[in-house]
Amino acid sequence: MVISVNRQAKLQVDRMIENSQLFQVEVTETGNGAHVIDAGVNAKGSITAGELATKVCLGGLGKAKVITAQYGDVLLPSVMVSTNYPPISTLGSQFAGWRITDKAEKFFGMGSGPARALSLKPKKIYEEIDYQDESDVAVLFLEADKMPNDEIVEVIAEGCKVEPSQVYLVIAPTSSMVGSIQISGRVVETGIHKISESGLDPKKIIYANGSAPVAPIHPDSTKAMGRTNDQIIAAGHVTLFVDSDDDKALEEIVKKTPSSVSKSYGKPFYQTFKEAKFDFYKIDPGIFAPASVLVNNIRTGKSHIAGKIDIPLLKSSIGL
After folding, report:
1. How would residue 281 be classed by pLDDT, with cut points 50, 70 and 90?
2. How many angstroms separate the CA atoms of 154 and 164, rounded?
3. Beta strands in the chain (DSSP E)
4. HSE-up of 42 (CA within 13 Å, CB side)?
5. How far is Cα 267 from Cα 270, in angstroms, rounded to an integer?
6. In whole angstroms, what is the distance from residue 116 CA to residue 258 CA?
7. pTM: predicted TM-score of the whole model, two decimal places
8. DSSP letter for each residue of 7-45
9. What's the total number of domains in the chain?
């Protein structure tokens, strides 16, 4: 039986709905019956809501906890993430692979989470990990500054082949507590995506763990986007447990994984983005990776590490 990331994530969504006041989120319904959890657009949101939103993005197949960690001489809140289902929970769910727009309403949201496993956005990833969900409920996290309307819900419902009333959306902008936490909570996903792009079959990844600091909130969404990316690029660390019969090839793949190998590395992301005239296509996609990666080959017992935490870059990004 296929493990359903949507059904697992729905358990986390139910907690948010049933305890909305405690988690400082607001629950509403659209005209066509979709359930929308505002975790930062108009609502205040909370640290706990950020942890739950990260678990939702992971399809309910991972853990996320905000702790305090030391980076050089600075103590910062950080997100620790772990999963026993790395390919499905990260590439199959958490990866932000669904752009949802409504030009008339000036709505733009990056969709991540289990609903992607119903809509197969993008299809190539699901072929690589050999996974497709089966569920009559669709759960999606939207990183957006505005609340979605009925038309947005229809697009999601149609893509997932479910009724609009069975769509559950969690919304938070980058410039919010929940937004900042859930982006840092993508540290493992970025590591798995990058190492997969570097040549490792993601199905060989058996367990995964990682952490990244939580960016201080900035009211400007573009600057907040820069800061949140920097938490992973400069100070994110990922440990992957893989099953490989070729340590030499694995070592070379690991060397190509950290953010520091990118030609765009070396300055705060907002500065890089500004110099590229705010055009993502002018930035090397290889920059979207954790600073440090440790891979343990459970077949041979050997470990391979590459990259390092860049304290000066981290402090520069957040103005310290």
Report:
1. confident
2. 6
3. 26-29, 35-38, 62-71, 74-83, 98-102, 107-112, 138-143, 167-172, 205-213, 237-242, 292-297, 303-307
4. 9
5. 8
6. 26
7. 0.95
8. HHHHHHHHHHHHTHHHHT-EEEE-TT--EEEESSSSS--
9. 1
> Residue 263 is encoded by which pair of tokens?
């030609």
φ, ψ (nearest 5 deg) of residue 106: 55, 45
Pairing of strands 26-29, 35-38: antiparallel
b/e map 143-153, b = 16+ CB within 10 Å: bbbbbbeeebb
How many degrees, rounded to 5, is the angle at CA 44 between CA 43 and CA 45? 95
* CATH classification of the domain holding 76: 3.30.1030.10
> Residue 268: how many CB atoms within 10 A of its CB?
21
Domain that holds residue 132: 5-317
The residue count for the chain: 320
- Paired tokens of 94: 């958490």
For the record, the structure tokens of 283 come out as 């930035």
Instruction: Give yes or no for a contact between 228 and 179, defined as CB atoms under 8 angstroms apart.
Output: yes
- What is the residue-wise DSSP string for 210-253? EEEEPPPP-SSHHHHHHHHHHHHHHH-EEEEEE--S-HHHHHHH
- Residues 217-228 have pLDDT tens digits of 999 999 999 999
- Per-chain mean pLDDT for the chain: 96
CA 86 to chain CA mean position, Å: 13
Per-residue pLDDT reduced to its tens digit, 146-158: 999 999 999 999 9
Contact 136, 162 (CB under 8 A): yes
Q: Is 149 helix (H, G, I), strand (E, B) or coil?
A: coil
Strand, helix or coil for residue 78: strand
Q: 3-class SS at 52?
A: helix
